[in-house]
From TrEMBL:
GO terms for molecular function: carbohydrate binding; hydrolase activity, hydrolyzing O-glycosyl compounds. Residues 31-212 form the Carbohydrate-binding domain. Gene3D superfamilies: 2.60.40.1190. This is Carbohydrate-binding domain-containing protein. GO terms for biological process: carbohydrate catabolic process.
Length: 213
């Protein structure tokens, strides 16, 4: 089972926007999203994430380099997984249900909760505290690939099915993904490898450990 160790980001209470904490996350360990259980294309993106937390939020920075990008969906809880998309799933304790947060390369996102594919989309009032910021760069060393970075703040209050006051010392279960159903080169990459016959991220039995130090 894969494990990610998540460090407390000192001084991050003053970093109120994703853009401000993005550089601080650069010092955290980088984890690759490169498990290709369902090979479909010769052209695959490169994706990674760094994660930290503070007294109020989980902080994540995704970095993606890919040939094609798509950001058609612009409204909360749109099917952003059809676009150039990264995802974060997390379960607390021994719960069978878990939260899924999915973001396209424009920062549009959906948020859900439930067991397996029985998802309850969280209302806008629950998801609105999430903040995102996107940066695009030309990947000079591998033209014509495009490099995009997504910084995300997920406040504890977003976990509306739980009363999360602190994550210090807790071990959770979760996974991170990169996908793009409607891209010219569809792909389904994971951090913690999934074993299934067809693409399906909603298999919590394959979650890795996320340890908040």
């Amino acid at each position: 089972m894969k494990e990610a160790n998540v460090l407390f980001l000192e001084g991050s209470e003053s970093l109120l926007s994703p853009g401000k904490f993005s550089s601080a996350l650069a010092a955290q360990q980088e984890y690759q999203i490169n498990e290709d259980t369902w090979p479909m294309q010769d052209i695959l993106p490169k994706a990674s994430f760094r994660i930290a937390y503070n007294d109020r939020s989980i902080l994540i920075k995704f970095v993606v380099k890919e040939r094609d990008i798509r950001s058609k969906h612009v409204y909360y809880n749109d099917p952003v997984y059809k676009d150039s998309c990264v995802e974060f799933f997390i379960a607390f304790g021994d719960d069978k249900a878990y939260y899924n947060f999915e973001f396209n390369c424009a920062g549009t996102f959906l948020a859900g909760y439930g067991e397996g594919r029985q998802r309850e989309l969280l209302p806008f009032s629950a998801g609105s505290p999430i903040e995102t910021e996107v940066c695009f760069k030309q990947a000079k060393e591998s033209f014509p690939d495009i490099l995009w970075e997504l910084s995300v703040v997920i406040p504890f209050e977003v976990f509306v099915k739980h009363n999360i006051r602190s994550l210090r010392g807790r071990s959770c279960r979760g996974n991170f993904f990169k996908c793009g159903d409607d891209l010219p080169h569809p792909h389904y990459l994971a951090w913690s490898r999934i074993q299934a016959d067809s693409p399906d991220f909603h298999l919590p039995q394959f979650f890795g450990l996320i340890n908040f130090k």
